[in-house]
Amino acid sequence: MRAWEGRKGDRSTIWKCMFKCTFWALPPPHRTATMWKTLSPFWGEEYEVHVPPTFHCISFYVMDEDALSRDDVIGKVCITRDLLAEHPKGYSGWVNLTEIDPDEEVQGEIHLQIEISGSDTVRKLRCRVFEARDLARKDRNGASDPFVRVRYNGKTQETSVVKKSCYPRWNETFEFDLDESATEKLCVEVWDWDLVGRNDFLGKVVFNIQGLQTMQQEEGWFRLRPDKSKGSLGSLQLQVRLRDETVLPSGHYQPLVQLLCQEVKSGQDGQVHLITLIDETTTAECRQEVAINLVKLFLGQGLAKEFLDLLFKLELDRTDEPNTLFRSNSLASKSTESFLKVAGMQYLHSVLGPTINRVFEEKKYIELDPSKVEIKEAGCSGLHRIQTEGEVIQQSAQHLQSYLTDLLAAIAKSVKACPALIRAAFRQLFKQVGEHFPEEKHKNVKFIAVTSFLCLRFFSPAIMSPKLFHLREKHADARSSRALLLLAKAIQNVGNMDTAASRAKEGWMAPLQPTIQQGVLQMKEFIIQLIDIEEKEELDLQKAFTLQTLVVKEGPLFIHKPKGKGPLMSSCFKKLYFSLTSDALSFAKTRNSKKSAFITLSNIRAAEKVEEKSFGSSHVMQIIYTDEARQLETAYLQCKCVNELNQWLSALRKVCVNNLGMLGSYHPGFFKGDKWSCCHQKDKSGLGCDKTRHGVTLQEWNDPLDPDLEAQLIFRHLLGVLQDLEASHCKALLSSGAIADQDRNCLLELQT
Q1: Which of 119, 157, 256, 398 has the most C-beta neighbours closer than 10 Å?
Q2: In what helix (H) or strand (E) does residue 331 lie, and over which residues does it extend?
């Protein structure tokens, strides 16, 4: 799903815009960066998330950010599931924004039982309100204070208010005298109670009593409906694609996975392998996705280096011109780029983070292009003078040289920080390119082959768009963005080994030439050290990645420490540094301190959010696990923000995806005194009052690997390839023996 840009509407007072999309029944919303002081914002951001199979629609909100008050909603776009189903390759285009009506902003479902009872003379209409789920969040604390209003034949009754919950439980019953002659309908409305101002409408369900008299009783979950809608405002350009995948148990994918692994291990010559077939049949439209799937699958199998090695060989076999090597968006290029993002994001952050943070904090005006230089005033108060163009460029060059020097020094010192698996892959690339182009005139080609990925496809894009690589939470302002762009160009020139063509392309970069030339020497020395990796070190890390024992997520969290016992018990949170691997969740006082095992992952039974009212704090999660005595225990951890909370929950749920005995329900509150704060149950070990959400996860570069999903996506692609081959002139290729029998038979077997 991509949010591209917006067209301005008729509001002249809109100064800044942000874009927020809400996946109904999948809290919380995702949010783009804020575009400041514009009526025609451009975002260009992409999100991939898992949505429940029963979702109804996806809502996109364009909002005006306010620092001191609640953000104003400018308008929204609602994309229904039916619309996405009509566009299997994705829906793309401009969609009109609609005006926001609070009575329209509804979502969720309510569990009701409606029945007619009594004698022939006195008949009663009884409405039992059980609970609701996935209600809209109307309050600033990220929840609502819902209550239900039941109206029939001019009479109204209301439930109690459940504070700070989008999954409230009431279990209250209301009775009305049934009027046989009335045409009045039974209306059940859900509202958010507000202490100040009017209550917010959350949705309603309307029942026809005449139809109910035939059935006598109706019970179930009913989708909440809106009241009305209004006109349109501006428009939003979107690309949205719904992909519905059925992932089977691991055993179903073993023939495919084994065949792919066998091909990568053997690297047989003279046959068209499945990898080659994929390479030759992927289109520009799907190549990125297929590359990501293959990389993640082979990472999980411990064969990422061998897979890339095979792709390097295939690319070199069809390349005679060194200047074009790995410059196209081939499967080899896309796979290596994806490999770096999956395996090297922590390394990227450690290398680029300090310099990028410095650019954001200093906000220096930097410009080397004479056609874009803005002349400005300089000097102290009372002695202002206009700087010349040459002075601006000279000052800009000094600032940029400082940033570039720091960044090159950070890269040069990062050899040990670079994951051994990446170093091993680059060692193979360096060796293969050197053997393919052994001439003295091509002595730089093997270095450029490495930097074409490391600098041009990894470092430079992250420098230009740090938010997209999670280096910053917001996009850069115009001044910082220009400084980052020039810094990225400089790194590209270093990666190109400062060729004549590179210098001639943008001659105004000449003031940086001495630093770039020095950077080329540093980069060559860095690459020589980078590929000098011991075989044992490579095998150790490859084994670690196969078992997925690398750090999945780490960072500071606050752990709940109860004080005292009984009803007077108070709470506090202590800050510790947590580390999540595929084995355990551990903690230490600081990042570099010795870690203590905290929770073994196989013992985790649920990872869920905690209601804000439980501790009076936002962004608290709970981890329910079994101790050594097989008794359930709960750890409460507080995150610094909602994004951090979602990332921890996502990571925990994914590494525990195959755990046995996962809970189906939990308590979103806290047991204090003699009852749960959420449902007031007095049995501490009783069933939870809310459902667990094991399937609600994010999908980011640093997410744990999901081998079954990757295998399913690769299988789907191969199935499409097989259908295309059978329906085209390539059908003869299948029967000619050019494709190995085992490959063809495996495809045919998988198809059935």
Answers
A1: 256
A2: helix 331-343
* SS3 category, 610: coil
* Alpha carbon distance 607, 648 (integer Å): 9
Q: How far apart are CA 542 and CA 420, in angstroms?
A: 8
Helices (H), 27-126: 81-85
Vertex 506 angle, CA 503 and 512, to 5°: 65
**Within 153-216, where are the H helices?**
209-215
Q: How far apart are CA 453 and CA 326, in angstroms?
A: 8
Going 444 to 447 to 453 to 456, the CA torsion angle's sign is negative
Contact in structure between 166 and 668 (CB atoms under 8 Å): no
**Topology, domain 250-335+706-751:** GTPase Activation - p120GAP; domain 1 (1.10.506)
Pick the CATH number of 551-691 from 3.30.450.20, 2.30.29.30, 3.40.190.10, 1.20.1290.10: 2.30.29.30
The fold adopted by the segment(s) 344-378+385-545 is GTPase Activation - p120GAP; domain 1 (1.10.506)
Q: How many CB atoms lie within 10 A of CB 254?
A: 11
**Helix (H) or strand (E) segment spanning residue 94:** strand 91-98
H-run or E-run covering 536: helix 535-546
Q: How far apart are CA 424 and CA 535, in angstroms?
A: 9
Contact 223, 133 (CB under 8 A): no
Poorest-pLDDT segment among 207-216, 315-324, 334-343:
207-216
pLDDT digit string (tens) for 32-84? 777 777 777 877 777 776 666 667 778 888 877 766 555 667 777 888 888 88
**Ramachandran bin of 630, using left for φ above 0, alpha for ψ from -120 to 50, beta for the remaining angles:** left
Q: What is the rounded average pLDDT of the residues 613-638?
A: 87
- pLDDT at position 624 is 94
CA–CA separation, 62 and 283 (whole Å): 34
Contact present, 428 and 309 (Cβ < 8 Å): yes
Best CA proximity match to 496, nearest among 455, 540, 551: 455
Neighbours of 543 (CB within 10 A): 11
Residue 748: the pLDDT is 54
Cα dist from 164 to 135, 222, 439, 497, 613, whole Å: 11, 22, 71, 59, 7
Instruction: Provide the residue type at 492 as one letter.
Output: Q
Q: What is the per-residue pLDDT for 521?
A: 93
Instruction: Tell me how far apart the alpha carbons of residues 298 and 308 are, in angstroms, rounded to a whole number.
Output: 10
Task: Write out the two tokens for 520.
Answer: 């080329």
Q: What is the pLDDT of residue 85?
A: 83
> What is the rounded distance in angstroms from the CA atom of residue 206 to the CA atom of residue 685?
38
Close Cβ partners of 314 (under 8 Å, ≥ 6 residues apart): 275, 276, 279, 332
CB contact set of 34 (below 8 Å; sequence gap of 6+):
16, 17, 18, 65, 474, 475
Q: Using CA atoms, how far apart are residues 507 and 500, in angstroms rounded to an integer? A: 10
CATH number for the segment(s) 109-223: 2.60.40.150
> Taking the domain 2-101+232-240, which CATH number applies?
2.60.40.150
Q: Which long-range contacts (CB under 8 A, 24 or more apart) does 389-396 make?
A: 392/365, 392/367, 393/367, 393/368, 393/511, 394/511, 396/364, 396/365, 396/366, 396/367, 396/368
